[in-house]
Predict the structure.
Amino acid sequence: MNMMSEAAVEKALDKKMNDISYKMIGKDVSVYYGEKRALYDVNLNVRENTVTALIGPSGCGKSTFLRTLNRMNDTIDGCRVTGRITLDTDDIYDPNIDVVELRARVGMVFQKPNPFPKSIYENVAYGPRIHGLAKSKSDMDAIVEKSLQKAGLWNEVKDRLHEGGTGLSGGQQQRLCIARAVAVSPEVILMDEPCSALDPIATAKVEELIHELRANFTIVIVTHSMQQAARVSQRTAMFHLGNLVEENDTDKMFTNPDDQRTQDYIMGRFG
Amino acid sequence: MSQVSTSPSMATLGVSAKPERRDIGLRRRYAAERRFRLFGMAAIAFGLLFLFLLLFSVVSKGYTAFQQSMITIPVEFSEQVIDKNNERATNPQKLVSANYPVVARNALAKVLGVAEDDRAGLKAVNGMISDSVRTQFRDMVVANPAIIGTTQTVTFLAHGDLDSAFKGQIDLSVAENNRKISDKQVGWMNTLVESGALSKHFNTGLFVNGASSRPEAAGLGVAVVGSLYMMLIVLVLSLPIGVAASIYLEEFAPKNRFTDLIEVNINNLAAVPSIVYGLLGLAVFVNFAGFPRSAALVGGLVLTLMTLPTIIIATRAALKAVPPSIRSAALGLGASKMQTVFHHVLPLAMPGILTGTIIGLAHALGETAPLLLIGMVAFVADIPGTPLDPSTALPVQIYMWANEAERAFVERTSGAIMVLLIFLILMNVGAILLRRRFERRW
């Protein structure tokens, strides 16, 4: 693969890190499911070209927060979001913001691999097609190839692009879903426990992929695995009972957290 | 099993002592399972038995309906009988109103050697000929008046009673004056069979003829065409309306008290007795909208109303069965709600929708009660050209034939049931094939 050298990537990223720019800013975000409140005034900013991991015990609201970032919560009946979330300078809950356009800018990868029951090619081509991103068949072929390469799947599937996407193994399916999300060229990619249904080898591949995607995308990942958060992310946010407990550099978070609850959770004392 | 012999090597391994065996009720559990399987098999055997009885009864009574006795003899189209005064050049009605049964009677009498002045004999001969020769011969003569005065070999229908006797359906041990066919006629019948003049032919009339009070000439033509029109109307109306309603309710409509009410109502409508739909159709389509009575259009509309709840329920179930992850995937890519539904959800729900639709159609095809109320239980002799013409339907035709007194209608009733069952089987096979064709795994 014609990737930048590892050193060059790190250098570019360090430069970015030094003058911090926030891709998404969440201010006083609260979420209600009917009467039940799931998030309490969360203030969390997502840095550009950074992998931000959201950790915390089950039911702590980390997935809920993730889903507010591309308004997937809109599809749940009785779900209400208050507070402000911006993408660059746009308030994504502004009535003038089109949710379809938002989701083209903020893509999502789900917990369980969910390829469409269509061919591998069609899976990747679907997003660009509905958004009219390809002018011609050859354009589309190029987008599909590039996306599959970015997802590290090209070499495995290039000879069977027109076979069913559901015939792939679990790890390949998840990378196909990542390729599908990447094909739309979003600015942010949200990942909701993307490796929880995968075996360790497939997990390692997806983590490596996340690491590479960071050069082009801002990534927010929900994970149950401390080790995974430590391996893939630069920033980590810890949620507990609907509150944001702590948000910090991943290194600091796992060595010397500011909050006792983070310490306890990371040490495995609860959750 | 017998006791395991402990080999010396195992003893040296220090195998732990076997604990006392616990009674975990295995015998009871297996007995319960065996009992349940027996019940299941008995239930299936019971069901199969009744299915077999039904089919046996229908087929054994009905298979003869697909054959019809016909008489093939030389017939003299005598000018003396058809057009005694030679007026056909001036009076075109003459050839239409001529007394053709006499032509057939004379021909048969000649073959059987009955004298022309034997009035009783001629009457008995007449009783062996179907009155449908009137139209058959008329059509021949009108199409080609040159055959008048010539002798042609013609095949025509035997009388229904002769047909029944020939098929052995009339008990000849009954006293002669208590049965429909006399000893003399039976004797003639045997003569005709021996000479090859009376034989059984495939009964095309059963499929193309309209209603007739003479069983040998009665057919399902009108009913088949009427049912076909109605099925087309039901399909064209109820599939799009039902699918659109279900998609809206399932994917777009807000979940509130009003949509709950609609849902409950749809479920209840599926259980409304069909005769109520017939009354509704009579009031709305015939009395209010002024559509013609007995028309396939009205029948189709009534059956559409009846089928809609079935299709809506089946479609909603099919839509519900599509995994939510597919919807999330499409929405997460930025597909609009409508694109999500039409690109992903609907194709995956298609097998279920089609199965539900065909089962709904099959149900509508066999429905009788509402059609009785809108006047489709009628004597219709001519095949309807459009859905606005009077017609009947297959199940209604069965109902009407079942009410007829003649022996020959018994086999026709069963024959019509067989035709209806074949239609239903074909539709179900269609449903299975469509399901296979559209089924996709995820």
User: Anything to note?
Assistant: The radius of gyration of chain A is 18 Å.
